[in-house]
Design goal:
The chain is of the alpha/beta class. It has a single domain (about 5-145), classed as Flavodoxin domain (Rossmann fold, 3-Layer(aba) Sandwich), CATH 3.40.50. It is about 35% helix and about 20% strand. Strands 1, 2, 3, 4, 5 and 6 form a 6-stranded parallel β-sheet that branches. β3 (about 50-55), α2 and β4 (about 85-90) form a beta-alpha-beta unit. The radius of gyration is 14 Å and the shape is globular. The relative contact order is 0.21.
């Protein structure tokens, strides 16, 4: 069975909820998923799985959250050739740079040699029913990229 790690950073609990939902949808799609707080892990955790996923929020005016900056920096040095990646995030459209951390992590993953497995998902604050559907489609796309 294909395996995935979903690493998240969450301040209000919204992104943690998104990561947990994503873990459930990945499992339903046939991918063994483990959800981890960025506080408890390093970017090298992705070296031992088939799928690397980051769930993050965007802080202030497009900034990475403080607790994920070190992980972000480490990620560029991890070789993920042959692996699949995905990024999801939460944000607030009242800010000019809505969910910019999602875009930042996409760029960082490109440096690792991993292949994008699904279009990124950006969620306004907490996940509603439409967002849940987007996360389910995201998980199914990841699984399809793996031929699960």
């Amino acid at each position: 069975m294909a395996s995935a790690k979903v690493v998240y950073a969450s301040l209000t609990g919204n992104t943690e909820e998104v990561a947990e939902l994503l873990g459930e949808f990945l499992t339903e799609a046939g991918v063994d998923a483990e959800v981890l707080s960025v506080d408890d892990t390093q970017a090298s955790v992705f070296a031992d799985v088939d799928v690397a996923i980051v769930a993050t929020y965007t802080y202030g005016d497009g900034d990475l959250p403080d607790e994920i900056v070190e992980f972000y920096d480490e990620l560029a040095g991890v070789n993920l050739d042959g692996k699949v990646y995905g990024v999801v995030g939460t944000g607030d459209t009242s800010y000019e740079l809505y969910c910019k951390s999602v875009d930042d992590f996409e760029e960082q993953f490109e440096k690792t040699g991993a292949v994008k497995g699904a279009a990124s998902v950006k969620i306004e604050n907490d996940a509603d029913s439409d967002d849940r559907e987007k996360l389910e489609v995201f998980a199914k796309s990841i699984a399809a990229t793996l031929n699960v």
